[in-house]
Structure prediction request, 436 residues.
Amino acid sequence: MAGLIYWGIRVYEDYEDTTYSNEFGKVLSEALVAENEGDFAKALKLYRKCLVVCDNEMTSELDQHYTGAVLKVAEMFEKLEDFDHALAVYKTLSEFMVSEIGRPDSNLSKKKFDMLLQQSMVATMRYTNLLKPEEKYKVKKLLLDNIVMAQRRLAEHYPAFLVLLYDQINRSIVDFLTAADPRVPKLPNELRSIVKEGLVAQLAPQPGPDMAKLPKEIKLLITAGDAWLPFVKELVSLRDQFADICISEGSLDEASFYLRTNLLLMQSSIDEPGKLTLTLTKMGVVLYLMSEEYEKHAKLLENTDQIAIIDQLSTLGFKPKPDTSQGKFGNVLNKIKEISYKESEASFQQVLELTGMIRSASFGTDTQLPEFVTVGMHLAEMISSTGLAMHMLREKKYAESKKHFLRARVLALKYDVDDYLKDIDFHLEELNSKMP
Prediction:
């Protein structure tokens, strides 16, 4: 179909035959060879020819070979740096597939649905990556559409997955996983009773029921890697992209929910430790920023009237009782602030431990490690070192803070992350003035 790339995708009658003709196979093989040889212009022509063959044979546009060829067309545009056309095709393909495979009357088999959903998620992920930072808000609905469909399918396939979508129980799973780690704080009994009694109904991430009281199926989910469907990796990526948008918009509590669930998904289903370190780092940063917000709002409560208190707490995800005093609110916020600070610090420390373990598996170097292991690891290590330095500075542990800042500086120079050097040097000068 000549107008497909520029004008969108027409809908043919859906059917389940996923085999392709000899002619399609011949053209596809030529396209793959051209792409492998780096001749992306030739590959683009051949992938578009694949679509012409499909149209001539009246192949359904929901056939995964058809949609796969469209995805390849977009990918070739991207490799040729024709980003306008790449964006248009990725967007059109994902919107079309979300609309079609999400129809209640769809007769797709589960296997085909999963394959098409995975392609839609890849298209959405690449579309989002190509957008400028100030444009990413435009893709929130498309990201959510894909995320919701994937999560609904996972819940259908493995019902215990539903539990991971509720952050209160989600926190209990985190508590269960980290029960033996003294660095990860648990909610103090005093604060538990305050929340339980309804003084503050916490809507932002906070612990829920004890893990011991949850069904064993939920505990098994943590290690049920073989139960996951093939698009879980894409789901994690889309949730991560959505979290990034939330962070840029200042919706830190929402971002922390997506990141926390992602950590559990990654530990149980995806063997990419480098990306795990990056997500842990991002979680540490978000928790640190949330702590600063809690601290700021706690100070504001000291000399604020009751109506303003309720408005301020609502922005943090709380639903307060109107007859509660400023002092009690401030006390609760300060306790939550300290919990978030400690959890942030633990996240950064875990990143450094994990990167050390990864290097130990490769005799202390990165050179023997495949790229899928190290991707994101260096940036995570540098930011986490900076994060720990900031925590030590806040706690007035100046020698420890300087040690971590110096490590972060070495890593920033080693891996060409110059954007952080100015801030690191500023804090090092500040520390030198404080230390004897």
Q: What stands out?
A: The longest strand covers residues 200-202. The longest helix spans residues 326-360.
